[in-house]
Amino acid sequence: MDNNNVLTGVSVAAEKKPRGLKRFFKLLYQQRALVLMSVPFVIWLFIFRYLPIWGWTIGFQNFKPAKSFWEQEWVGFYHFEFLFGDERFLRVLRNTLVMSTINLVLGFVTAITLALLLNEVRHLVFKRVVQTVSYLPHFLSWVVAAGIIRVTLAPDGIINELLMRLHLIDEELLFLGIGEWFWGIYGASIVWKDVGWNTIVYLAAITMIDPTLYEAAEIDGAGRFRKIWHITLPGIRPVITVLLIMNIGYLLESGFEPQYLLGNGMNMDYSENLDIFVLKYGINQFNYSLSVAASIFKTVVSFILLFAANNLAKRMGETRLY
Amino acid sequence: MAEMTIEKPRRRRVRMSLGDRIFDAVNYTLLCLLMVVTLYPFLNTLAVSFNDATDSLRGGIYLWPRKWTLENYKFVFEEATIFQATLTSVLRTVIGTVLTVFCSAMVAYTISRPEYVLRKFVTIAFILTMYINGGLIPTYLLIRDLGLIGSFWVYIWPGLIGVFNLIIIRSFIENLPDNILESAKIDGAGEFRTFFSIVLPLCTPVLATVALFTGVWQWNSWFDVFLYNSSYEHLSTLQYELQKILQFSNASTRSVDFTAAGAQQGLSQVTPYAIRATMTIVASVPIIMVYPFLQKYFVKGMMVGGVKE
């Protein structure tokens, strides 16, 4: 801390060093430019990010929007108890967990596979073209993506047409109308949208592998698969580990947009997740308290998971989120 | 498969074993298939948007329009709601991106200064929000109480600074050579001068990345429009208009729409099917034009954000 006298351009080296609070305020004054550059945004942060946390109290009340805070009726954990006895909530919880697991496993496997395949391409122009194309769906909005997916899966869409022509089916299938299929469609959709994007980190990690390892392996007579298995995969293992751990922290975050935009009355039992539950109870049915209780549950579990994940990553000596 | 390739280190590309060739063939086929799967739905939509609307209902449009027309685009751009929505989308993207990039860079600069007394406090205050948030309803009530409902600024203020952006800009500044910033201070430049005339220009690559992410996010947003401004038509955006059209005609594409289209338009020169395709293109073209040119920037940005050493 001492060298900041030089940095702030004020020489107080000759003075006696002030201590404690006094020193703090002195520094604060010296660094007023930095304070001016960051504190307004901290205030913004408190208003938009921390103030809403106060709203959690709604989850413990029978909240009536017309009443003031002091007039609300407090009900303790009533809404939480209701949630865990509610069949719909439990179904929603199941859907959330299943879909985020699909997201996690499928996302990892496909992205790593694609990264390995891309890494084996020697034709650099071709590689670049594939990469650029594979990033495309990531940049499209889910509204556009869901629209495209719906047209593709429609009874008169290309998938049905292909299956009919190959005589694999006799009549058109209503893909989004069959609840049991929703998870599969969800998995395919997120892979379609993000597989290319997710390869970036792995490809970056692959470039950091020491090339002499490959040369040594070649001299030892290792083929393509052996090199992939014994050099490339172990080389990116730290990245895989840290991303896997961090993603476990987001286990209740299975996304909102794909389920909402691809969901309909027919597949509701499989597509509805926690976020949609919160939205439907809160915004559509004005049951603020129940909705808030569900989102408190989600945040608390996520918080614990994220915290544990981050600590686990730290303990394993891997890189952390920040 | 694992046949060995005996080759002299200096002449690598010449000899390939059979196994290698099979691998390459399979690999290139798979990657081409990936490109087809990625591009086909999009190219199909493009073809439908340029095809005569009533003709499209017969089906059979794949990669190329059968009866070329610009009517669909003409209709979309002459529709007042859609024109207004496009304008709002452009505005929120431009204003939101500029403000986000500028403010994020400023905060990131302060928390990259090791001597800053509030560094830890500011950093932790921001990072904590990754773990904890108020959730939908409390945020909604806050936005309502702040009087932001029915206002354009509801698209800007709530998402002003993202923690991820902050982290990648900070990492970038920290990796700048120290002496550049120090020599500026020794020359008597204040924090603001250093920030504007040294840090900002040097950070162009990472700021381009943040600008791309923010721009894409702003352009693609529809949920905040739905949540806060769904009853204010002049504040609607392109994505939200598209979402409404998509919700309206849920499961089917062509068949059911035909009657609806005929009833709605009378002339049925355009159909919801064609309008959907056209709007999908309008809503995605700006992004498709931009992202390939920023590829090297965002790839680098993701590397910093993803694997921080």
What does this entry look like structurally?
Chain A: InterPro entries: MetI-like, MetI-like_sf. Chain A: It comes from Thermobacillus xylanilyticus. Chain A: Residues 93-309 form the ABC transmembrane type-1 domain. Chain A: The chain crosses the membrane at residues 33-51, 97-118, 173-191, 228-252, 288-313. Chain A: It is a multi-pass membrane protein. The complex is a heterodimer of chains A (322) and B (309). Chain A has a two-stranded antiparallel ribbon with strand order 1-2. Chain A is 68% helix and 1% strand. Chain A is mostly helical and 322 residues long. Chain A is flat. Chain A folds into two domains: 4-78, no CATH class; 82-315, MetI-like (MetI-like fold). Chain B folds into two domains: 1-49; 71-309, MetI-like fold (Orthogonal Bundle). The relative contact order of chain B is 0.12. The chains are: A mainly alpha (322), B mainly alpha (309). The interface between A and B is large, with 112 and 107 residues.
List the helices and strands and how they pair.
The complex is a heterodimer of chains A (322) and B (309).
Chain A: H1 4-7, H2 20-30, H3 32-50, E1 61-62, E2 73-74, H4 78-85, H5 87-119, H6 124-139, H7 142-153, H8 158-165, H9 182-207, H10 211-219, H11 224-248, H12 257-262, H13 268-271, H14 274-284, H15 288-315
Antiparallel strand pairs in A: 1-2
Helix pairs in contact in A: 4-15, 5-9, 6-9, 9-11, 11-15, 14-15
Chain B: H1 18-49, H2 53-56, H3 71-78, H4 80-110, H5 119-131, H6 136-145, H7 163-174, H8 178-186, H9 191-202, H10 204-220, H11 223-228, H12 238-248, H13 255-265, H14 272-290, H15 295-306
Helix pairs in contact in B: 1-14, 3-14, 4-7, 4-10, 4-12, 7-15, 8-9, 10-15, 12-14
Membrane topology (chain A): Multi-pass membrane protein
Family (chain A): Belongs to the binding-protein-dependent transport system permease family.
Subcellular location (chain A): Cell membrane; Membrane
